[in-house]
Amino acid sequence: MPDAIQTLLLECESIFRFVQKLLKQAVARPFEWRETVRQCFEIGNRSLFLICFTAFLSGVVFTRQSRPSLSSFGAESWLPSLVSQAVIRSLGPLITGLICAGKLGSNIAAELASMKVTEQIDAMEVSGTRPFSYLVVSRVIATTLMMPLLVVFADVIALFGSYLTVHTINNTSLQLYLNEVSVVITFLDIFSSILLATFFGFAIGFVGSYAGYTAANGTSGVGKAANNAVVISMLFIFIIDLLSLQIINLFR
């Protein structure tokens, strides 16, 4: 038991030093603008289709599942309002976060872990470059910036899928659907969704980078780093979502 506690404390110290180094080098010159922009493009290009496809299916499925319940109470006209609130407040950011945790988190961890175990990072340090800023900071900033944009795409596509479903069933016009959505969606809902996505992006980038940058034990460490990045990122996403819900409800 004391050994387990000691290991946990050492891991917490390592995480604290990693965060401290990340924040320090994030504001230190020179900035790795070119690598950050490249990572933003890679993250967006790598995830956009899968996120949009999943969001579209989620909008369709959620609308079809919600309709019978509302119809039983004679409130089928509330369907656009219900779906839009669920999508923008929680469903859109959560789906996007989980997909990116599985796809981007594992990719970042595996890429950095491969460089770590093959001593490429050590070679960069010997050559006088700044591998932490180039490899870690750029990826964390990229995931933090791109996640809100991906969530916006996911929300729009999910609502579009919901509209097509409602239109097919009830022949509802697009203008009527948008009017119903605009009545219930507030600025707080949009702002909290974007802010939540920003925290999701930081958590995914940080966990993936930490798991990969601190990998060890040769090639087996690459797989372990990728697995840890996915599991811990998803756990953080649910925790952040729960905490943010409690805080945002205080302002509603």
Instruction: Give the ordered list of helices and strands.
Output: HHHHHHHH
Instruction: Report the helical percentage.
Output: over 70%
SS class: mainly alpha
What is the radius of gyration computed over CA atoms, rounded to a whole number of angstroms? 21 Å
Number of domains: 1
Number of strands: 0
Spans of at least 5 consecutive residues with low confidence: none
- Span from first to last CA? 45 Å
Characterization of this structure:
There is one protein chain. The protein is mainly α and 252 residues long. The protein has one domain. Helices cover 87% and strands 0% of the residues. The protein is built from eight helices and no strands. The protein has helices spanning 2-26, 33-72, 79-117, 120-126, 131-170, 174-184, 187-213, 218-248. Helix 5 packs across helix 7. The protein starts with a helix and ends with a helix. 37% of the residues are buried.
What features would you highlight for this structure?
252 residues; mainly alpha; 8 helices; 87% helix
Q: Nutshell version of this structure?
A:
The protein is mainly α and 252 residues long.
Summarize the helices and strands and which ones pair or pack.
Layout lengths: L1 H25 L6 H40 L6 H39 L2 H7 L4 H40 L3 H11 L2 H27 L4 H31 L4
